[in-house]
Amino acid sequence: MKQKKLVVIGNGMVGYKFCEKIISKSNEFELIIFGEEPRRAYDRVHLSEYFNGKSADDLSLSSTDWYTENNITLYLNDPVKEIDRLAKTVHSSHGLTVAYDYLIIATGSAPFVPDIPGIDKEGVFVYRTIEDLDLIANYAAQSTSGAVLGGGLLGLEAAKALIDLNLAETSVIEFAPRLMPRQIDSAGSSMLQSKLKELGLNIYTNKGTSSIEGTDRITALKFNDGSELKTDMLVISAGIRPRDELARLAGIEVGTRGGIIVNEYMQTSDPSVFAIGECALFDHNIYGLIAPGYEMAEVTAAKLCGDHKTFKGFDMSTKLKLIGVDVASFGDPFTTEPDARTILFEDSHKGIYKRINISNDGKYLLGGILIGEAEAYNMLLQTVNNKILLPPNPEDLILGSRGGAAQNENAGLTGLPDEALICSCEGITKGAICTAVTAEGCESVDAIKKCTKAGTGCGGCIPMVKDLMLHTMKQNGKFVRNVICEHFHLSRQELYDLIKIHDLKSYEQVLDNLGKGDGCEVCKPLVSSILASLWNDMILKKGNDTAQDSNDRFLANIQKGGTYSVVPRIAGGEITPDKLVVIGQVAEKYGLYTKITGGQRIDMFGAHLSDLPLIWEELIAAGFESGHAYGKSLRTVKSCVGSTWCRFGLHDSVSFAIRIEERYKGLRAPHKLKSAVSGCIRECAEAQSKDFGIIATEKGWNLYVCGNGGSKPQHALLLAADVDSDTCIRYIDRFLMFYIRTADPLTRTAPWLNKMEGGMEYLKNVVVNDSLGMAAQWEMEMQALVDNYQCEWKTAIEDPEIRKRFNHFVNAPEEKDPTVKFDALRGQKMAADWTLA
Amino acid sequence: MIETTLNWFAACRVEDAVENGGVCVKRGEEQIALFYFTRRNEWYATQNLCPHRKQMALSRGMIGSAGDVPKIACPFHKKTFSLETGECLSGDECSIQTYPVKVENGLVYIGLED
Prior knowledge:
The structure holds 2 protein chains of 2 kinds.
Chain A: E1 4-9, H1 13-25, E2 29-34, H2 56-59, H3 66-69, E3 72-75, E4 80-84, E5 89-92, E6 97-99, E7 102-105, E8 109-111, E9 124-126, H4 130-140, E10 145-149, H5 153-164, E11 169-173, H6 186-198, E12 201-204, E13 209-213, E14 220-223, E15 228-230, E16 233-236, E17 240-242, H7 245-249, E18 260-261, E19 273-275, E20 280-282, E21 285-286, H8 290-304, E22 318-322, E23 325-331, E24 341-347, E25 352-358, E26 365-371, H9 377-385, H10 396-399, H11 411-415, E27 421-423, E28 428-429, H12 430-438, H13 445-452, H14 462-475, H15 492-501, H16 507-514, H17 523-535, H18 550-553, E29 557-558, E30 564-566, H19 577-589, E31 593-596, E32 602-607, H20 612-621, E33 634-639, H21 653-664, E34 673-678, E35 692-696, E36 701-705, E37 717-723, H22 725-742, H23 749-755, H24 759-767, H25 775-787, H26 792-798, H27 800-803, E38 822-825, E39 828-831
Parallel strand pairs in A: 1-2, 1-7, 2-3, 7-19, 9-16, 10-11, 10-16, 11-12, 18-20, 33-34, 34-35
Antiparallel strand pairs in A: 4-5, 5-6, 8-17, 13-14, 14-15, 20-21, 22-23, 23-26, 24-25, 25-26, 27-28, 29-30, 30-32, 31-32, 35-36, 36-37, 38-39
Helix pairs in contact in A: 1-8, 12-14, 15-17, 20-26, 22-25
Chain B: E1 6-13, E2 21-27, E3 30-37, E4 42-47, E5 49-50, E6 55-56, E7 62-66, E8 69-73, E9 80-82, E10 98-99, E11 101-104, E12 107-113
Antiparallel strand pairs in B: 1-12, 2-3, 3-4, 4-10, 5-6, 7-8, 8-9, 11-12
């Protein structure tokens, strides 16, 4: 059978998607593509990443061979200059004449450039193609300030690009009174504006530009109100203009304000000519987003293959990250009374604005806007598109359920019909994703991506795809295991037991015996922590050093800017004047910021990596040892002054605190551990907010466990009352070993207890009544760990191999990182603020 | 593709590199992270700057794999990047520059375009 000839004009994202769709449906067609740009189709949506290190190749949508593999003829750098509809041929700029049976126009759009005096000056750019970006980048190298004309979605993207090019000043100029006037309302817009200002962007709204100043090259912008803005360069992003000139020339019907008029099959006034993407005008609308463009490609491909899909207009809902701020707009974002009711949430402290519009009867969600936090976007969009009945308190949709019964997080997913569109870029429904899980056995997001293409466009739906996958797996009776990561299909407790049984001593051994692949930043620190909890070897022993979490690897806490903080142990908060002097001298010598911590010790900030061994050498010489502030391990045992000085004190709380801190110092656990001892019921040491806290009573000590401060404060609960010192320590031994053995990674004692079946009563039985018969073993294991303690810093400074790892440059060991910057603060220093991403 | 000639820069001796970890190499004003993925017997080099918060820290990060892809996790906020392509694997819109590496006579060289 003779193939029909299909000519595609334009090799942008939509033109490319059309080819992909048509070859997957049929082999009846011979495809010929003409592209104006010199390169094959690339991802224009993520164009700004070009300045973030992505190459043109990375952005490319296909491999070099894709076109030849699929027998597609591709002419690049050769725009079509004329369509001859009578002869059914196209003529290209390079003089080719190619006949077609069907013609697809996918010429996209061009930036709209307003007619402002001086617009042709050097230093004025548009933002559309990789070539444009190259020009902008070259020019930016010799500029210090830049401006963007247009505060819409693309304008803000362009502004991000300028920020990424490290211009000292970047400004956005918008004619309308607010940013993104098409997508968000004025309240949302002002929230976005203040958030962007915080991030270093200058924003001018209500500004009409009257002229561009400068002799040959731009130096400033002049505005209608007489004001002026100095700038070295300008990027125009004032909207788009559909590329309809070829169609117009060929007598195909176009709209009065541009755009090739198409019907619901994307056919133009000539039935053998189709138009898709941003050049097409459907129902008086130009669709400037990628998802509707892809849908048009699908409709056209279906039509040519004899299927009867139609284009029904498209939801212009969108969610994106603009310069790090989440912005989403869905359904009808603007509708208001009397057609609808609005619920608003505004938090100018955190920079969050949320608006939902609901029907007057309170049953349906019509649309809304999210600024600053857009996690709920996917679910809200589904609620609009599938006309899902709203809960009795629709405000919960943006505020979350407050108090009362816990919400069933999957209720929303179950309620979605199978037709619900989850990935709008690729048009993938909930049904398709569930089928991929159930019938195709896809049990990871990557597998679903490969199988259905869901999540491969803008990626915004991926969290929902994952939830759907897990939910479906659970429904299918699949046991969704709480495994560590892709390298270990085990829970932390299983791994702990196996490492112990197999007597494994290094990360590599554990991975070889119990895992697969090459490890990652999740399992490495976890295994390292288990190894330390089990054997208490020096954590930087060769082979295990690089498996430590960053802070453990350098035995210090990494801080903003890449310097470290140093915390020597000051057990119980007790310190001699001599040692105080040493801390002061060391801090002065190495230029460190000093602060008293919440745990009664002294923290020294701003140490260069290469200074750490020198600092510790001096501290250790003066009798200090590591405070383990960097480890998931015991931090401090805080104490009040107790009976030695206090007139209320019942026992010597400082001495007991020091005894406890000396015993458990260096102990590695699933998370950090804090403790305190109070000398009487007044509780000055705040022991009830600790992982284990002790309060003196008339008859002995009360032991409280599983409290913590932090983001969700929880009081510790009484484990044993009126016990003597030795019994108290035995109970703590058992309690800690039980916790270390069974807790999930990075779970502190309070949430560990909260998840424990039987709660405090059960824990009491295990620890006090030895219901598991483990007490003796745990006490023995703890004693072994205590006996094996060493000051990691002492070992580190004595070992030249370990010491050399503290140099910043491997090839210039004596030099410090020159990028470290400090600001002054109250006579000391502080880390320079995050450079904006 | 335009062929560019690579300038091979001698970074350090093999024994100076950290097994299954990274070191930072100074080249003029530039900082390059060099990783010796001993487990896979592979070498990688990337920019040392993490693009997320612009911290000179990637050489102090942890390496590993996602599927077959070798990756580096920044010590600051655990953003991960492919060591092969520099692509951000934790869903952020940023990526890092990668450089070829070769080892000859016990010396590690990083290939840079000049």
